[in-house]
């Protein structure tokens, strides 16, 4: 899935990451500063991240299908996909558990725990996504089977390029 030759997935992933990170910060902040506005902001951020995650996951599936099954990044691709879908499912669970925000000034301990677990999965999945781009060159023109405009130069990508030229 591309827009003007660039993969859409990397354009979309920043939104759920930002929303879910903000939700986790707001929820932790309610432990020290109980305020209904923080609970409401966290709810809105979890919901927006879940919606944005649907778009990012859909674009990711399309990108996943475009990478050759023999590509050395397949294991990392699968791990990235499963980790990020797990994060999404954890945040969906948190959203359902929260329900619509009430006049409470704190979040339930279970919802907070889910947010922190989801955040940990999010960080792990984002690390794997970075490894795909910077280590394997997935989505970069001429490297890793991608067709997007590139120009990124780093050791992992350059070594991958040298391996492909042999």
Keywords:
6 helices; 166 residues; 2% strand; two-stranded antiparallel ribbon; mainly alpha
Provide the fold topology:
Layout: E1 2-3, E2 6-7, H1 9-12, H2 14-32, H3 36-66, H4 74-98, H5 109-135, H6 155-165
Antiparallel strand pairs: 1-2
Helix pairs in contact: 2-3, 2-5, 3-4, 4-5
Question: What can you see in these coordinates?
Answer:
This protein is mostly helical and 166 residues long. 70% of the residues lie in helices and 2% in strands. It has helices spanning 9-12, 14-32, 36-66, 74-98, 109-135, 155-165; strands at residues 2-3, 6-7. A two-stranded antiparallel sheet has the order 1-2. It has one domain (2-129). Helix 2 (14-32) runs antiparallel to helix 3, helix 2 (14-32) packs antiparallel against helix 5 (109-135) and helix 3 runs antiparallel to helix 4. The relative contact order is 0.15.
N- and C-termini, Cα separation: 29 Å
Residue-averaged pLDDT: 85
Query: What number of structural domains do the residues give?
Result: 1
Rg from C-alpha positions?
Answer: 18 Å
How many DSSP E strands?
Answer: 2
Strand content: under 5%
* Regions with little confidence, pLDDT below 50 for 5+ residues: 146-158
The residue fraction in helices comes out at over 70%
SSE ordering? EEHHHHHH
Q: What is the SS-derived class?
A: mainly alpha
Q: In which order are the strands of the major sheet placed?
A: 1-2
Number of helix segments? 6
C-alpha geometry: elongated
What can be said about the biggest beta sheet?
Answer: 2 strands, antiparallel
